[in-house]
């Protein structure tokens, strides 16, 4: 079986008992009419299992270079010579934990079932990030015309103070 960053990370996180969900452009691609190329895999982790040091050691042992993107260590930027790059975001809010709980397990475009953010949570995450590429992802998801729980999006867009941004894209 061909190794990909996603498959190796999924196996490693499963072995450590860490729940995770696919986020970012790969998750958005699940709900778009056409895929957007991306250079990395983005995962949201429910926690770090036995500790951040254990996770970092396991990643290094699997060939990943690990860099803490912030002193709080809520984001790990990792690189692998053969598999590429990934960002591991550690959930720090009730909203992020809820998004993990709501994840859909799907095989669409993947070898095995993986947890993927719901389209509503993809939109909320993209609104929070607010970069041009994120807003383009929101527009592409909206253009695809999939059914959305707009009350849920409005609730969290209001909470994260991105409601006007949501309304402007809607």
Number of helices: 8
Q: What is the spatial order of strands in the main beta sheet?
A: 1-2-5-4-3
Per CATH, which architecture?
2-Layer Sandwich
Low-confidence stretches: none
**Would you state the CATH class?**
Alpha Beta
Helix content: 40-55%
Main β sheet profile: 5 strands, mixed
Q: What is the approximate shape?
A: globular
Number of domains: 1
Work out the strand percent. 15-25%
- Under CATH, the topology can be stated as Beta Polymerase, domain 2
Helix- and strand-based class?
alpha+beta
Number of strands: 7
Describe this structure as you would to a colleague.
This protein has 170 residues and is α+β, with helices and mostly antiparallel strands. It has a single domain (5-169), classed as 2-Layer Sandwich (Beta Polymerase, domain 2). Helix content is 45%, strand content 20%. The protein contains 8 helices and 7 strands; from the N terminus they run H-E-H-E-H-E-E-E-H-E-E-H-H-H-H. Strand 4 (75-80) and strand 5 (84-90) form a beta hairpin. Helix 5 runs parallel beside helix 7 (150-159). The longest helix is centred in the C-terminal third of the chain and has 13 residues, at 132-144. The N and C termini lie far apart (42 Å). The mean pLDDT is 91.
Sum up the structure in keywords.
single chain; 170 residues; alpha+beta; Beta Polymerase, domain 2; five-stranded mixed β-sheet; two-stranded antiparallel ribbon; 8 helices; 7 strands; 20% strand
């Amino acid at each position: 079986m061909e190794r990909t960053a996603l498959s190796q990370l999924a196996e490693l996180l499963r072995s450590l008992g860490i729940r995770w969900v696919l986020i970012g452009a790969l998750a958005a691609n699940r709900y778009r009419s056409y895929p957007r190329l991306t250079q990395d895999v983005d995962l949201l982790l429910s926690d770090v299992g036995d500790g951040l040091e254990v996770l970092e050691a396991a990643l290094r042992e699997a060939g990943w270079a690990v860099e803490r993107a912030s002193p709080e260590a809520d984001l790990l930027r990792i690189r692998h010579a053969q598999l590429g790059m990934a960002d591991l975001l550690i959930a720090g809010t009730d909203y992020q934990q809820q998004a993990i709980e709501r994840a859909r397990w799907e095989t669409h475009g993947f070898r095995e079932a993986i947890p993927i953010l719901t389209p509503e949570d993809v939109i909320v995450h993209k609104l929070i990030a607010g970069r041009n590429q994120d807003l383009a992802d929101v527009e592409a998801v909206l253009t695809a015309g999939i059914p959305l729980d707009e009350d849920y999006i409005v609730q969290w867009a209001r909470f994260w103070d991105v409601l006007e941004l949501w309304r402007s894209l809607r």
